[in-house]
Amino acid sequence: MRSQVVIIGSGPSGLLLGQLLAGAGVETVILDRVSKDYILGRVRAGVLEEGTVKLLEKVGAADRLHREGLPHDGFSLTFDGRAHRIDLFGLTGGSRVMVYGQTEVTHDLMDTREAAGLTTIYEAANVQPHDFDGANPYVTYEKDGVTHRIDCDFIAGCDGFHGVSRKSVPEGARKEFERVYPFGWLGILAEVPPVDHELIYANHPRGFALCSMRSNTRSRYYVQCPLDDKVEDWSDDRFWDEIRRRLPDEVASAMVTGPSFEKSIAPLRSFVTEPMRFGRLFLAGDAAHIVPPTGAKGLNLAASDVYYLSEALIEFYRDKSEAGLDGYSARALSRIWKAVRFSWWMTTMMHRFPDTGDFGQRIQEAELDYLVSSRAASTALAENYVGLPY
Ligand code: RFL
Ligand code: PHB
């Protein structure tokens, strides 16, 4: 088989890249290690920047998003028993975010790809990129016990943090930057109305908490937890008691509780690999970088990466120019590092760290107090939260 571009990974970055390229007539095949149902069973991001929404509109995958997504003009920060609203819309001069689950984004992109008759091979085992340092790269994979080969011009590594693409590059050719945080997030989904119509990010001496949602009847809640905690340690009752203790009284008393139907623990990490191009292999999304979820940036960075990459590939096929391909890594990394900084800062300000004690708590409260009382500081937060331009 032959395709102009082979995309490894059928998460949001691979699927969006496939549709952006399809719009310009560039052929792609997508390979994923797992099944479509497995991918759609993963519960992840919930907040989309306007830039991400625009890209989904551009590829014709935003109809349901506009019907079912919840536009949010602000969110609240709580600390020291008080709640403060950050007016995203007012502070940024008219920008907002859209609350719409990653699962739904992925579903819509898969439907768009299928409707266009484009090829995705799920449950492709042992996917391996080859010869990407030369002019004739190819990818091999196994399916039903048979080994297949796809020759191509370029390989897009959109296979997430644990994927094969980044690991195929010799260690000496990449530099990695990493910070692992000493805690995780325990998240639940429950069929209960959200405690507020906007998100609430809570700083509390017992640890961080986040009240988010998937719809007006479905809540997504998180609490910071120790890394060695197991999901089995957390009954629903324990979860509800803990999150209510971390919120101001008026919020806690308004919270509707109920049985959870999903519960998982995610570790928090900041990670960047440089560069994002190795010959004819390009990395995008979580394959190249991870941010802690506090700033809601992971999926949005995946979208800006593949926008840059699609522009570069389209320029190559249309104008026979490699300028965009040569500039891809630096262009993407410049936006990525700003989001890495923002996510690290939000994480540092909002979580309880085991080694900073009560002093650390007071410093966080002072920073939060400054943040909500200074228009300049609130504006910087709002500008980053809605997403820097690209
Ligand atoms: P994905 O989604 O991990 O998809 C990668 C795909 O590659 C496949 N794959 C392979 N295929 C073939 N061969 C191999 N060897 C392969 N190895 C892996 C996988 O099966 C998978 O289908 O990466 P992608 O597309 O780059 O997308 C990135 C986003 O998923 C991620 O950044 C976000 O989920 C992060 N994130 C959030 N981002 C936001 O923008 N806003 C949020 O509100 C937000 N909240 C979150 C989050 C991530 C979380 N967790 C669980 C990590 C909340 C949480 C709790
Ligand atoms: C979510 O709804 O899953 C979510 C929202 C905001 C975040 C992280 C996750 O910062």
TrEMBL record:
InterPro entries: FAD-bd, FAD/NAD-bd_sf, HB_mOase, RIFMO-like. GO terms for molecular function: 4-hydroxybenzoate 3-monooxygenase activity. It comes from Rhizobium paknamense. Residues 3-343 form the FAD-binding domain. This is p-hydroxybenzoate 3-monooxygenase. Its EC number is 1.14.13.2. It is an enzyme of class 1 (oxidoreductase). It holds the Pfam family FAD_binding_3. Keywords: FAD, Flavoprotein, Oxidoreductase. It comes from the Bacteria.
